[in-house]
Specification:
The protein is of the alpha/beta class. It starts with 29 loop residues before the first helix and ends in a 6-residue tail after the last helix.
Length: 325
């Protein structure tokens, strides 16, 4: 009888990472970004093996604390923790004591008192993950805070670009849609610029104001003029839940001016990538035919999100201060 295969060991033994938390891409250096991407690449190789689990976080407990609803991000973090052999608890706002009037700080400190090692937080208020990270010994991972940042989405986006095109530096990336209310857009801008890409924001003037040019990006309201130039087009959905008034006349008008239709997609370079963080509004920001085409890497983004979140959990848990016995 053949010997039982051994479980894979962690891909990196001593990462040069000193942060217990991941709160914002804006805080990271290009070297730190590259370390996360390289670690994620190693974990993606692990996921291709017969035995996909590694013991890197055995004995650790991760709490998915999602005050805002989520499917892809929460499930991705949960699977990432399972692959690293951690225990996982999922909590939503409706099932937590927040619904009874308890403060976010008190809820989180109670979770820490139960020896939660990592808290993955999604919250509607910008700054909530930073607030907790400054008050807890547990690692805090930002899974999206209001219209501020979504760090792991940006990391999986640049990981996908690097994997498919071999580099990020020197590429021209267009981010199209609701820039004003998008935490993905902000994190993507910081990650892409730090890694040497050129970024152009595209959208109606109400949702892509020129104020963003202060970050070092270009802003245009004419998608047709930019499509032949770009190596990557990243489409964002309209963040209706964060808008308190109408920012364009109708969805039909938005699609006619900014949607990636089949006709517009033909103006792209043959090897240009089409991305979307999801959920997709088919027929609004992108035609179904284009979303399912060979140039679309939308499902690759989902797959790569697992490897990236494994890397983030592994690195942050390794840098966290040991808890007293």
């Amino acid at each position: 009888m053949s010997a039982k295969p051994k479980a894979a060991s962690p891909p990196l033994a001593a990462p040069a990472w000193t942060r217990k938390d991941l709160v914002a891409i804006r805080d990271l250096s290009p070297e730190e970004l590259t370390l996360v991407l390289d670690t994620a690449a190693a974990f993606k190789e692990v996921s291709a093996r017969e035995i996909k689990k590694v013991p890197s976080l055995r004995g650790k407990t991760l709490v998915n604390f999602f005050v805002e609803p989520s499917t892809r991000t929460r499930t991705s973090f949960e699977l990432a923790a399972f692959r690293l052999s951690a225990d996982v608890v999922n909590i939503s706002a409706t099932t937590s004591s927040l619904s009874k009037g308890e403060t976010l700080k008190d809820t989180a400190r109670n979770l820490e008192a139960l020896h939660a090692d990592i808290i993955v937080l999604r919250h509607s208020s910008a700054g909530a993950p930073l607030f907790l990270s400054q008050r807890l010994d547990s690692s805090v991972i930002n899974a999206g805070d209001g219209a501020h940042e979504h760090p792991t989405q940006a990391l999986l986006d640049v990981f996908t670009i690097r994997e498919r095109l071999g580099r990020v530096a020197g590429l021209h990336v267009a981010i199209v849609g609701d820039i004003l209310f998008s935490r993905v857009a902000r994190s993507d801008i910081f990650a892409l610029l730090k890694l040497g890409a050129k970024v152009t924001l595209v959208g109606p003037s109400t949702l892509a104001p020129r104020e963003f040019e202060k970050l070092g990006v270009r802003v245009t309201h004419d998608i047709d003029s930019i499509l032949p130039e770009v190596d990557v087009v990243n489409l964002l959905r309209i963040q209706h839940e964060r808008q308190r008034r109408e920012y364009f006349p109708s969805l039909g008008e938005y699609t006619s001016f900014f949607g990636l239709t089949r006709e517009r997609a033909e103006r792209l370079k043959p090897d240009a990538l089409i991305m979307h963080p999801g959920p997709i509004n088919r027929g609004v920001e992108i035609d179904s035919e284009i979303a399912d085409s060979a140039r679309s890497v939308i499902l690759d983004q989902v797959t790569n999100g697992l490897a990236v979140r494994m890397a983030v959990l592994y690195l942050c848990a390794g840098a966290a201060r040991p808890k007293p016995s």
